[in-house]
Design a protein that fits this description.
alpha+beta; five-stranded antiparallel sheet
Length: 168
Amino acid sequence: MEPDRTPAPGHDPDLDARLALLRGATSSLDAPRCVEKELMQAFAARFPRKLPWHRRLNVLEWSAAGAGAAITACVLAILLAPPLPYGASPYPPLVRLENGAAFIALDSVERIEQEPDPQLVEAELPRTVLAALGLPVAPEQAGEAVRAEMLMAADGDLLALRLSAIDN
């Protein structure tokens, strides 16, 4: 079946012939390179390409977004961390009382554990030293002595102190 070739209302067949003649005459013409280049630049300036969203942000905006994300992560880590009971410490106790004897770590537990050759030295200390270490001392017993065992490092540093029978 052939398409209907009836002209549309207001269609001028003479115009078609003139346009065909014009197309034939201009088909051999070529515009200079500079004209094409200027036209492409004008078109690019008039209709710029849209950048993706992540390329529209500058360095300062990305830095602000990163800082905000880091602060948010820190706040969430703090808020979601399990709370310690009141008065509890995440570190092992430095003073421990057992059966009337006190063990006092004077240096970090890691340093005590890493010491290759500690020495144990026995001595008698006045009970006033216990008050300086934060242990309770009755005033009537302040002048008495208490037996102490001191753990010393090879370089002479005092690492720990064990007081025996401080309740006596």
